[in-house]
Amino acid sequence: ALSIGIVGLPNVGKSTLFTALTKKGGLAANYPFATIDPNVGIVDVPDDRLNALAKIVNPARILPATVEFVDIAGLVKGAAAEGAGLGNQFLANIRECDAICQVVRYFKDPDVMREANHTGEFVDPASDAETIMTELILADIQTLEKQLPKLEKEAKRDAELAPKLAVAKRLVEWLNEGNRAITMEMTDEERAAAKGLFLLTMKPMLYVANVDEDMLTEDLDPIDGVKPIPICAKVEAELSELDPEEAAEFLADLGLERSGLEVLAQAAYRLLGLQSFFTAGEVEVRAWTVRQGATAPQAAGVIHTDFERGFIKAETIAFEDYVALGGEKGAKEAGRLRMEGKDYIMQDGDVVHFRFNV
Ligand code: GDP
Protein backbone atom coordinates (compact mmCIF):
# COMPACT_ATOMS: atom_id res chain seq x y z
CA ALA A 1 0.00 0.00 0.00
CA LEU A 2 0.93 3.60 -0.45
CA SER A 3 2.62 4.76 2.75
CA ILE A 4 3.17 8.19 4.17
CA GLY A 5 5.43 9.05 7.10
CA ILE A 6 4.16 11.68 9.51
CA VAL A 7 6.78 14.02 10.97
CA GLY A 8 6.74 17.36 12.76
CA LEU A 9 8.10 19.30 15.71
CA PRO A 10 7.00 18.31 19.23
CA ASN A 11 3.55 19.52 20.34
CA VAL A 12 2.19 20.21 16.89
CA GLY A 13 -0.52 17.55 17.25
CA LYS A 14 1.03 14.49 15.60
CA SER A 15 -0.02 12.06 18.31
CA THR A 16 -3.52 13.51 18.45
CA LEU A 17 -3.86 13.08 14.71
CA PHE A 18 -2.35 9.65 14.79
CA THR A 19 -4.60 8.44 17.58
CA ALA A 20 -7.55 9.54 15.44
CA LEU A 21 -6.06 7.55 12.59
CA THR A 22 -5.71 4.35 14.51
CA LYS A 23 -9.08 4.49 16.31
CA LYS A 24 -11.79 2.34 14.84
CA GLY A 25 -13.55 5.26 13.22
CA GLY A 26 -10.41 6.35 11.46
CA LEU A 27 -9.38 2.94 10.31
CA ALA A 28 -10.24 1.79 6.85
CA ALA A 29 -13.57 0.04 7.31
CA ASN A 30 -12.63 -3.10 5.45
CA TYR A 31 -9.06 -3.46 6.42
CA PRO A 32 -8.64 -7.07 7.53
CA PHE A 33 -5.68 -6.60 9.84
CA ALA A 34 -7.04 -4.15 12.38
CA THR A 35 -4.28 -4.68 14.90
CA ILE A 36 -1.12 -4.36 12.91
CA ASP A 37 1.81 -2.19 13.87
CA PRO A 38 0.72 0.44 16.42
CA ASN A 39 2.66 3.03 14.45
CA VAL A 40 0.60 2.45 11.35
CA GLY A 41 -2.86 3.80 10.57
CA ILE A 42 -4.83 3.08 7.44
CA VAL A 43 -7.28 5.46 5.80
CA ASP A 44 -9.72 4.90 2.95
CA VAL A 45 -9.32 7.08 -0.09
CA PRO A 46 -12.88 8.28 -0.61
CA ASP A 47 -14.13 7.90 -4.16
CA ASP A 48 -17.75 8.62 -5.07
CA ARG A 49 -17.38 6.51 -8.19
CA LEU A 50 -17.37 3.39 -6.02
CA ASN A 51 -20.90 4.14 -4.87
CA ALA A 52 -22.07 4.73 -8.44
CA LEU A 53 -20.67 1.33 -9.45
CA ALA A 54 -22.17 -0.34 -6.39
CA LYS A 55 -25.62 0.98 -7.28
CA ILE A 56 -25.40 -0.94 -10.55
CA VAL A 57 -23.89 -4.25 -9.41
CA ASN A 58 -25.12 -4.48 -5.78
CA PRO A 59 -21.92 -6.06 -4.44
CA ALA A 60 -21.58 -7.74 -1.05
CA ARG A 61 -18.89 -5.20 -0.16
CA ILE A 62 -17.16 -2.07 -1.38
CA LEU A 63 -13.40 -1.79 -1.00
CA PRO A 64 -11.87 1.63 -1.51
CA ALA A 65 -8.18 2.23 -2.08
CA THR A 66 -6.22 2.89 1.10
CA VAL A 67 -3.31 4.99 2.25
CA GLU A 68 -1.08 3.91 5.11
CA PHE A 69 0.19 6.54 7.55
CA VAL A 70 3.25 5.80 9.63
CA ASP A 71 4.02 7.66 12.83
CA ILE A 72 7.66 8.67 12.63
CA ALA A 73 8.59 9.89 16.05
CA GLY A 74 11.94 11.36 16.90
CA LEU A 75 12.45 14.34 14.66
CA VAL A 76 13.31 17.32 16.85
CA LYS A 77 15.23 20.49 16.34
CA GLY A 78 18.96 19.83 16.36
CA ALA A 79 18.55 16.07 16.03
CA ALA A 80 20.63 15.87 12.90
CA ALA A 81 22.78 18.88 13.63
CA GLU A 82 24.01 17.72 17.02
CA GLY A 83 25.78 14.56 17.99
CA ALA A 84 25.05 11.27 16.36
CA GLY A 85 22.41 12.43 13.93
CA LEU A 86 18.96 10.96 13.56
CA GLY A 87 18.33 7.56 15.08
CA ASN A 88 18.68 4.51 12.90
CA GLN A 89 15.13 3.42 13.65
CA PHE A 90 13.86 6.82 12.60
CA LEU A 91 15.78 6.71 9.36
CA ALA A 92 14.71 3.15 8.64
CA ASN A 93 11.05 4.01 9.21
CA ILE A 94 11.08 7.12 7.12
CA ARG A 95 12.98 5.51 4.27
CA GLU A 96 10.28 2.94 3.77
CA CYS A 97 7.66 5.61 3.15
CA ASP A 98 6.63 6.79 -0.31
CA ALA A 99 6.11 10.35 0.87
CA ILE A 100 6.55 12.49 3.94
CA CYS A 101 3.77 14.45 5.57
CA GLN A 102 4.81 17.21 7.90
CA VAL A 103 2.34 18.38 10.52
CA VAL A 104 2.73 22.09 11.19
CA ARG A 105 1.13 23.93 14.07
CA TYR A 106 -1.41 26.60 13.16
CA PHE A 107 -3.68 26.31 16.22
CA LYS A 108 -3.18 29.09 18.71
CA ASP A 109 -3.89 27.48 22.10
CA PRO A 110 -1.56 29.31 24.54
CA ASP A 111 -1.85 26.37 26.96
CA VAL A 112 0.11 24.17 24.61
CA MET A 113 3.84 24.86 24.69
CA ARG A 114 5.50 25.41 21.43
CA GLU A 115 9.06 24.52 20.56
CA ALA A 116 10.82 27.77 21.46
CA ASN A 117 11.91 29.92 18.58
CA HIS A 118 13.40 33.33 18.16
CA THR A 119 10.09 35.14 17.72
CA GLY A 120 8.39 33.70 20.79
CA GLU A 121 5.15 33.46 18.81
CA PHE A 122 2.77 30.59 19.41
CA VAL A 123 2.32 30.06 15.72
CA ASP A 124 5.03 30.38 13.10
CA PRO A 125 4.39 27.79 10.39
CA ALA A 126 7.04 28.94 7.94
CA SER A 127 9.79 28.83 10.54
CA ASP A 128 8.64 25.45 11.90
CA ALA A 129 8.55 23.96 8.43
CA GLU A 130 12.03 25.30 7.77
CA THR A 131 13.34 23.80 11.00
CA ILE A 132 12.17 20.35 10.02
CA MET A 133 13.37 20.73 6.45
CA THR A 134 16.80 21.73 7.71
CA GLU A 135 16.95 18.55 9.80
CA LEU A 136 16.02 16.43 6.80
CA ILE A 137 18.57 18.15 4.59
CA LEU A 138 21.29 17.73 7.22
CA ALA A 139 20.43 14.07 7.59
CA ASP A 140 20.77 13.66 3.82
CA ILE A 141 24.15 15.38 3.78
CA GLN A 142 25.32 12.98 6.48
CA THR A 143 23.94 10.04 4.53
CA LEU A 144 25.83 11.12 1.42
CA GLU A 145 29.07 11.86 3.23
CA LYS A 146 28.96 8.40 4.72
CA GLN A 147 28.48 6.82 1.29
CA LEU A 148 30.88 8.94 -0.77
CA PRO A 149 34.27 7.46 0.17
CA LYS A 150 33.06 3.93 -0.51
CA LEU A 151 31.34 5.00 -3.69
CA GLU A 152 34.51 6.72 -4.94
CA LYS A 153 36.54 3.60 -4.34
CA GLU A 154 34.00 1.35 -6.04
CA ALA A 155 33.55 3.69 -9.01
CA LYS A 156 37.24 3.30 -9.82
CA ARG A 157 36.70 -0.40 -10.32
CA ASP A 158 33.20 -0.32 -11.76
CA ALA A 159 32.57 2.24 -14.49
CA GLU A 160 28.82 1.73 -14.20
CA LEU A 161 28.86 3.53 -10.87
CA ALA A 162 30.11 6.76 -12.44
CA PRO A 163 26.66 8.39 -12.81
CA LYS A 164 25.78 7.52 -9.22
CA LEU A 165 29.01 9.03 -7.94
CA ALA A 166 28.57 12.14 -10.06
CA VAL A 167 25.02 12.71 -8.91
CA ALA A 168 25.98 12.08 -5.27
CA LYS A 169 28.68 14.76 -5.50
CA ARG A 170 26.33 17.24 -7.10
CA LEU A 171 23.69 16.47 -4.50
CA VAL A 172 26.02 17.21 -1.58
CA GLU A 173 26.59 20.69 -2.99
CA TRP A 174 22.93 21.20 -3.74
CA LEU A 175 21.91 20.15 -0.23
CA ASN A 176 24.62 22.29 1.32
CA GLU A 177 23.03 25.28 -0.35
CA GLY A 178 19.90 24.48 1.61
CA ASN A 179 17.94 22.76 -1.14
CA ARG A 180 15.95 19.56 -1.14
CA ALA A 181 17.31 16.72 -3.30
CA ILE A 182 14.03 16.37 -5.17
CA THR A 183 14.33 19.90 -6.60
CA MET A 184 17.71 19.32 -8.27
CA GLU A 185 17.63 18.97 -12.04
CA MET A 186 18.55 15.44 -13.03
CA THR A 187 18.44 13.29 -16.11
CA ASP A 188 16.34 10.14 -15.89
CA GLU A 189 19.52 8.13 -15.45
CA GLU A 190 20.72 10.37 -12.64
CA ARG A 191 17.34 10.24 -10.99
CA ALA A 192 17.38 6.46 -11.04
CA ALA A 193 20.90 6.49 -9.56
CA ALA A 194 19.85 9.00 -6.90
CA LYS A 195 17.08 6.64 -5.76
CA GLY A 196 19.75 4.25 -4.54
CA LEU A 197 21.21 6.92 -2.26
CA PHE A 198 18.24 6.73 0.16
CA LEU A 199 17.74 10.42 0.64
CA LEU A 200 14.83 11.72 2.68
CA THR A 201 14.47 14.91 0.68
CA MET A 202 14.02 12.93 -2.54
CA LYS A 203 10.55 12.05 -1.26
CA PRO A 204 7.55 14.19 -2.08
CA MET A 205 6.48 16.30 0.89
CA LEU A 206 2.96 17.17 1.99
CA TYR A 207 2.08 19.70 4.65
CA VAL A 208 -0.77 19.36 7.09
CA ALA A 209 -1.78 22.57 8.84
CA ASN A 210 -3.13 21.67 12.27
CA VAL A 211 -5.57 24.56 12.57
CA ASP A 212 -8.16 25.74 15.07
CA GLU A 213 -11.69 24.59 14.32
CA ASP A 214 -12.73 28.00 12.98
CA MET A 215 -9.87 28.03 10.45
CA LEU A 216 -10.85 24.79 8.75
CA THR A 217 -12.35 26.41 5.67
CA GLU A 218 -9.72 29.16 5.41
CA ASP A 219 -7.38 29.44 2.45
CA LEU A 220 -3.80 29.09 3.71
CA ASP A 221 -0.57 30.50 2.28
CA PRO A 222 1.66 27.95 0.58
CA ILE A 223 4.68 26.47 2.37
CA ASP A 224 7.57 25.69 0.03
CA GLY A 225 5.25 26.32 -2.88
CA VAL A 226 2.57 23.84 -1.77
CA LYS A 227 -0.75 24.58 -0.13
CA PRO A 228 -0.95 22.94 3.28
CA ILE A 229 -4.00 20.78 3.92
CA PRO A 230 -5.98 22.21 6.82
CA ILE A 231 -6.89 19.65 9.44
CA CYS A 232 -7.95 20.12 13.04
CA ALA A 233 -6.39 17.23 14.94
CA LYS A 234 -8.82 17.75 17.82
CA VAL A 235 -11.79 17.50 15.46
CA GLU A 236 -10.30 14.36 13.87
CA ALA A 237 -9.90 12.84 17.32
CA GLU A 238 -13.56 13.57 18.10
CA LEU A 239 -14.69 12.27 14.71
CA SER A 240 -12.88 9.00 15.29
CA GLU A 241 -15.08 8.37 18.34
CA LEU A 242 -18.36 8.81 16.45
CA ASP A 243 -20.36 6.36 14.39
CA PRO A 244 -20.58 7.21 10.67
CA GLU A 245 -23.94 9.01 10.87
CA GLU A 246 -22.94 11.18 13.81
CA ALA A 247 -19.63 11.90 12.14
CA ALA A 248 -21.36 13.06 8.95
CA GLU A 249 -23.58 15.37 10.98
CA PHE A 250 -20.65 16.78 12.89
CA LEU A 251 -18.78 17.45 9.64
CA ALA A 252 -21.81 19.15 8.11
CA ASP A 253 -22.02 21.43 11.15
CA LEU A 254 -18.43 22.48 10.45
CA GLY A 255 -19.24 23.12 6.80
CA LEU A 256 -17.20 20.13 5.65
CA GLU A 257 -17.94 17.15 3.45
CA ARG A 258 -15.12 14.84 4.44
CA SER A 259 -12.85 14.30 7.39
CA GLY A 260 -9.42 15.88 7.23
CA LEU A 261 -7.81 12.48 7.14
CA GLU A 262 -9.78 11.56 4.04
CA VAL A 263 -8.87 14.83 2.36
CA LEU A 264 -5.26 14.13 3.23
CA ALA A 265 -5.44 10.62 1.77
CA GLN A 266 -6.84 12.04 -1.47
CA ALA A 267 -4.19 14.75 -1.64
CA ALA A 268 -1.44 12.21 -1.11
CA TYR A 269 -2.83 10.13 -3.92
CA ARG A 270 -2.69 13.09 -6.29
CA LEU A 271 0.73 14.22 -5.13
CA LEU A 272 2.17 10.82 -5.89
CA GLY A 273 0.68 10.63 -9.37
CA LEU A 274 -1.56 7.70 -8.60
CA GLN A 275 -4.88 6.76 -10.10
CA SER A 276 -7.55 4.11 -9.64
CA PHE A 277 -9.05 1.44 -11.76
CA PHE A 278 -12.02 -0.63 -10.67
CA THR A 279 -13.17 -4.18 -10.62
CA ALA A 280 -16.92 -4.63 -10.27
CA GLY A 281 -18.71 -7.86 -9.48
CA GLU A 282 -21.30 -9.30 -7.13
CA VAL A 283 -18.71 -10.17 -4.54
CA GLU A 284 -17.10 -6.75 -4.43
CA VAL A 285 -16.69 -3.42 -6.08
CA ARG A 286 -13.13 -2.43 -5.55
CA ALA A 287 -10.69 0.38 -6.31
CA TRP A 288 -7.09 -0.54 -7.10
CA THR A 289 -4.14 1.80 -7.19
CA VAL A 290 -1.72 2.23 -10.08
CA ARG A 291 0.74 4.85 -11.17
CA GLN A 292 -0.41 7.18 -13.93
CA GLY A 293 1.04 5.65 -17.08
CA ALA A 294 0.88 2.04 -15.87
CA THR A 295 0.18 -0.60 -18.52
CA ALA A 296 -2.65 -3.13 -18.39
CA PRO A 297 -0.38 -6.03 -17.33
CA GLN A 298 1.08 -3.87 -14.55
CA ALA A 299 -2.42 -3.08 -13.36
CA ALA A 300 -3.28 -6.78 -13.45
CA GLY A 301 -0.19 -7.40 -11.34
CA VAL A 302 -1.55 -5.14 -8.62
CA ILE A 303 -4.38 -7.64 -8.16
CA HIS A 304 -2.21 -10.72 -8.39
CA THR A 305 1.29 -11.43 -9.71
CA ASP A 306 -0.13 -14.38 -11.67
CA PHE A 307 -2.43 -11.99 -13.49
CA GLU A 308 0.54 -10.03 -14.73
CA ARG A 309 2.54 -13.06 -15.76
CA GLY A 310 -0.34 -14.73 -17.59
CA PHE A 311 -1.89 -11.55 -18.91
CA ILE A 312 -3.90 -12.02 -22.11
CA LYS A 313 -6.13 -8.99 -22.34
CA ALA A 314 -8.11 -6.50 -20.35
CA GLU A 315 -11.83 -6.14 -21.00
CA THR A 316 -12.16 -2.46 -20.31
CA ILE A 317 -15.06 -0.05 -19.94
CA ALA A 318 -14.58 3.62 -19.11
CA PHE A 319 -16.26 4.51 -15.82
CA GLU A 320 -18.58 7.04 -17.53
CA ASP A 321 -19.73 4.46 -20.09
CA TYR A 322 -20.22 1.83 -17.43
CA VAL A 323 -22.51 4.09 -15.42
CA ALA A 324 -24.32 5.69 -18.37
CA LEU A 325 -25.03 2.32 -19.99
CA GLY A 326 -26.12 0.60 -16.80
CA GLY A 327 -23.17 -1.75 -16.39
CA GLU A 328 -21.18 -4.34 -18.29
CA LYS A 329 -24.05 -5.79 -20.34
CA GLY A 330 -25.27 -2.41 -21.56
CA ALA A 331 -21.76 -1.25 -22.31
CA LYS A 332 -21.04 -4.39 -24.30
CA GLU A 333 -24.23 -4.03 -26.34
CA ALA A 334 -23.38 -0.43 -27.09
CA GLY A 335 -19.92 -1.47 -28.27
CA ARG A 336 -18.22 0.33 -25.38
CA LEU A 337 -16.41 -2.69 -24.00
CA ARG A 338 -12.86 -2.61 -25.31
CA MET A 339 -10.41 -5.51 -25.56
CA GLU A 340 -7.10 -3.98 -24.55
CA GLY A 341 -3.74 -5.66 -24.99
CA LYS A 342 -0.45 -5.59 -23.12
CA ASP A 343 0.57 -2.12 -24.34
CA TYR A 344 -2.61 -0.43 -23.17
CA ILE A 345 -2.01 2.49 -20.80
CA MET A 346 -4.56 2.40 -17.99
CA GLN A 347 -6.92 5.38 -17.75
CA ASP A 348 -8.24 6.69 -14.47
CA GLY A 349 -11.59 5.06 -13.71
CA ASP A 350 -11.32 2.11 -16.10
CA VAL A 351 -13.62 -0.72 -15.06
CA VAL A 352 -11.66 -3.84 -15.91
CA HIS A 353 -11.94 -7.56 -16.19
CA PHE A 354 -8.58 -9.20 -16.81
CA ARG A 355 -8.22 -12.34 -18.90
CA PHE A 356 -5.16 -14.37 -18.08
CA ASN A 357 -3.53 -17.80 -18.35
CA VAL A 358 -2.66 -19.59 -15.16
P1 GDP B 1 2.88 15.87 19.20
O1 GDP B 1 3.98 16.14 20.18
O2 GDP B 1 3.14 16.54 17.90
O3 GDP B 1 2.53 14.45 19.07
O4 GDP B 1 1.58 16.65 19.78
P2 GDP B 1 0.32 16.09 20.57
O5 GDP B 1 -0.62 15.43 19.64
O6 GDP B 1 0.78 15.33 21.76
O7 GDP B 1 -0.35 17.46 21.00
C1 GDP B 1 0.30 18.34 21.90
C2 GDP B 1 -0.76 19.10 22.65
O8 GDP B 1 -1.48 19.93 21.72
C3 GDP B 1 -1.80 18.22 23.32
O9 GDP B 1 -2.09 18.81 24.57
C4 GDP B 1 -2.99 18.30 22.40
O10 GDP B 1 -4.21 18.14 23.09
C5 GDP B 1 -2.87 19.70 21.82
N1 GDP B 1 -3.45 19.77 20.49
C6 GDP B 1 -3.25 18.93 19.45
N2 GDP B 1 -3.97 19.31 18.38
C7 GDP B 1 -4.65 20.41 18.76
C8 GDP B 1 -5.58 21.27 18.10
O11 GDP B 1 -5.95 21.08 16.93
N3 GDP B 1 -6.06 22.34 18.83
C9 GDP B 1 -5.68 22.56 20.11
N4 GDP B 1 -6.17 23.61 20.74
N5 GDP B 1 -4.82 21.77 20.76
C10 GDP B 1 -4.32 20.70 20.11
SSE map:
Layout: E1 2-7, H1 14-22, E2 40-44, H2 48-57, E3 61-63, E4 66-71, H3 88-95, E5 99-105, H4 125-157, H5 162-176, H6 188-195, E6 205-210, E7 229-231, H7 233-239, H8 244-253, H9 260-271, E8 274-280, E9 284-291, H10 296-303, H11 305-309, E10 311-317, H12 319-324, H13 328-333, E11 338-340, E12 351-356
Parallel strand pairs: 1-4, 1-5, 3-9, 5-6, 6-7
Antiparallel strand pairs: 2-4, 8-9, 10-11, 10-12
Helix pairs in contact: 1-7, 4-5, 5-6
The chain binds guanosine-5'-diphosphate.
Family: Belongs to the TRAFAC class OBG-HflX-like GTPase superfamily. OBG GTPase family. YchF/OLA1 subfamily.
Binding site for ATP: 11-16
InterPro entries: ATPase_YchF/OLA1, Beta-grasp_dom_sf, G_OBG, GTP-bd, P-loop_NTPase, TGS, TGS-like, TGS-like_dom_sf
